[in-house]
Amino acid sequence: MPFPDLPNGHALFVLLLTVFALYLFRRDDIPLETSCVVVLLVLTMGFTFAPFHNFNGHLEPMEFFSGFGHEALVAVCALMVAGQGLVRTGALEPIGRFLARIWKTAPLFSLLLTLLIAGILSAFVNNTPIVVLLLPILISVAVRSNRSPSGLLLPMGFATIVGGMATTIGTSTNLLVVSVAADLGLERFGMFDFMLPAAIAGAIAVVYLWLVAPKITPQRQALMKNTSPRIFTAQLHINEDSFADGKPLSEVIGKTDGMMKVTRIHRGSDATIMPMPDAIIRAGDKLRVTDSPDRLKEYEQVLGARLYKSGQEVNDDHPLTAENQQLSELVVTPGSPLAGRSLKDVSFMNQYGLVAIALHRADRVVDMHNKGLGKVTLHVGDVLLVQGGQNEISEFKKRGDILVLDATTDLPRSHRAPRALIIMGLVILFAAVGLLPIAVSALGGALLMILTHCITWRDAMNALSAPVVLIVAASLALGIGMTETGAAEYLAQAFVSVLHGAPPTVLLSGLMLLLAILTNVVSNNAAAVIGTPIAVSVATQLNLPPEPFVIAVLFGANMSFATPMAYKTNLLVMNAGGYKFSDFVKVGVPLVILMWISLSIILPILYDF
Questions:
Q1: Cα(169)–Cα(178) distance, rounded to whole angstroms?
Q2: Beta strands of 176-324 (E only): which ranges?
Q3: Where is the chain membrane-spanning (predicted)?
């Protein structure tokens, strides 16, 4: 079959711009947002100054901005907002505690379970919060077992990408491919239409990530070896409805998976009880514990206790607000109104609207005796862990008389975790059964997250990613240009001519490999949008059903394993584990080849080629 003649001038312009765009997208020194705006501007200006006419009529340059209102982008943004609801309510944290518990008894089985949970969750939830949740758990496991986390973090990160291939909402790449294919006239894919090939190939990938990847991953020094270096001393106040009331100390510590270290038990105004395993804890007791801020808040939640007195609880009558709670670390500096005084002396809670819950002193563990944190005389250099509303902490920073460290974190609204899980379940259910399009289902879920106070509008805005929005819009614009000008058809003809005479299985496999290479060099979303119209054109020229070719593009564009810049979670894992570029090549390239070969066999069998 002869190689096709060069396309028309507009198609050639789009092809050259696509190559230029792919070059810009991989440049680390140019913000991705800038590259996307440049591509959109050049594309619209080119077709404004040189109008294009085809059999559909005049191609309006403003059509290239239609991606900003495309259902795929609406679905991607809505899912990011809805997923933020799971993060802000701490709905995923019980999974993290469960994994941390089983790692102690069966490390090899625990790694497999971690990979499976990471993959399954990523089929329905954006994999970035999954990675963020699991990173500190795996690093902590590695530190406690005196081993390098290198063999754990990279397999976990790759497992989330593999799991994301299974459903139409698993990744933004999947949503784009499905939406672009529908725009080209194909019947819309259902949520689980390609789950079977993804599950079979994913099972093979998980075995590789479980048994092979940890052994071939070079040992690296984790950059996040200690995610919470400051250890604070605090008192857990036991309420009548606390789990600890009436339980022996050994059972209370067991409830925290053995992590909590109790140094004293204070009872009444004077009594101090030694923390013996059989000591019975009673309501009103104060357990002195030392740990990181995250662990202290976890103990408070698990035990149903308080890190501050019951009279200081967060409610409508208290200066603290029940929403937008944050933890922040304050340093007592020379000249500070706290230096040499106690919190009670300065009426800290009433004056600042904040509650102090723990204290860090660099040279030693703070001895509160039985008087509580409020009566401890503060020294210069002490670090207070305080809880309060976002507005109160912001106002506190503006005062300038006490140093606020850059360690402020939002506290999860854990009491709303069940409703966040129900909302996300409904989003998935309505889309899965075809009751609502995923864009409508996800948008409704995002709104429900806000209306039920799982997140605020500020959280929703923070959940949106400008690079993701712009890369999707720019990629869709290039896809429109390639389809309307005939550039996609030209590439399809060139692809078929190069593999002329090869059976359809080879063409499908070659297309998937081409996209797998492309996605590790440029954005996976860009690769997906560019590859989808080419896949449809190839299938049309061969008089074959286009669905398997579109799915080949979807799977190929998701094989972002070979380079750290191929996917954003790769960069998170690279930073946390101290990996080098070559580590991704060493572990990721075999995974790409394994997935490519597996799917090259599975897809023709399932689609009866």
A1: 10
A2: 232-237, 262-267, 271-273, 286-291
A3: 6-25, 32-52, 72-91, 103-124, 130-146, 158-182, 194-213, 421-451, 463-482, 494-518, 549-567, 587-607
Tokens of 13: 């312009």
Tally: H helices and E strands in the chain: 24, 11
- Enter the tokens of residue 482: 């390639």
Q: Which residue has the tokens 């799977």?
A: 555
Q: Quote the CA–CA distance of 418 and 454 in Å, as a whole number.
A: 10
Residue whose entry in the numeric block shows the structure tokens 């990744």: 171
Classify 387 as helix, strand or coil: strand
**Where residue 55 falls among pLDDT bands split at 50, 70, 90?**
low
CA 535 to chain centre: 30
**Is 578 in contact with 516 (CB distance < 8 Å)?**
no
How far apart, in whole angstroms, are the C-alpha atoms of residue 329 and residue 557? 43
pLDDT classification of 497: cutoffs 50, 70, 90: confident
Q: How far apart are CA 489 and CA 495, in angstroms?
A: 10
Band (pLDDT 50/70/90 cuts) for residue 600 is very high
pLDDT digits (tens, 9 = 90+) for 69-128: 877 678 778 877 887 787 778 776 677 667 667 776 778 888 899 899 889 988 987 776
User: Are 365 and 290 contacting, i.e. CB atoms less than 8 angstroms apart?
Assistant: yes
**E strand or H helix that includes residue 3:** none
pTM of the entire predicted model:
0.62
Contact present, 426 and 446 (Cβ < 8 Å):
no
Nearest-angstrom CA–CA distance, 299 and 393:
23
The pLDDT of residue 547: 92
CB-facing half-sphere around the CA of 406: CA atoms within 13 A:
0
pLDDT given at position 316: 45
- Helical (H) or strand (E) element with 572: helix 568-577
Rounded CA separation 535/530 (Å) = 9
pLDDT given for residue 521 in this prediction: 63
pLDDT bucket at 391, cuts 50 / 70 / 90: confident
Residue 147 CB contacts under 8 Å (≥ 6 apart), including other chains: none
Residue 523 CB neighbour total at 10 angstroms? 30
Contact 355, 347 (CB under 8 A): no
Q: How far apart are CA 76 and CA 39, in angstroms?
A: 21
Upper half-sphere CA count for residue 516 (Cβ side, 13 Å): 25
Mean residue pLDDT of the chain comes to 80
Sign of CA dihedral 585, 157, 578, 470: positive
Torsion sign across C-alpha atoms 95, 239, 387, 235: negative
CB-based contact 83:133 (threshold 8 Å): no
CA 535 to CA 515: how far, in whole Å? 10
The per-residue pLDDT for range 201-250, each reduced to its tens digit, is 999 999 999 999 999 988 876 544 444 456 778 888 898 889 999 999 99
Q: Which residue, 432, 588, 572, 595, is CA-closest to 127?
A: 572
404 with 328: CB under 8 angstroms?
Answer: yes
Distance CA 354, CA 359 (A): 14
CA–CA distance, 358 with 292 (Å, rounded to integer) = 10
Q: What is the CA radius of gyration of the chain?
A: 28
Residue type, 598: S
Q: What is the mean pLDDT of residues 382-408?
A: 69
d(CA 481, CA 44) in angstroms, rounded, equals 10
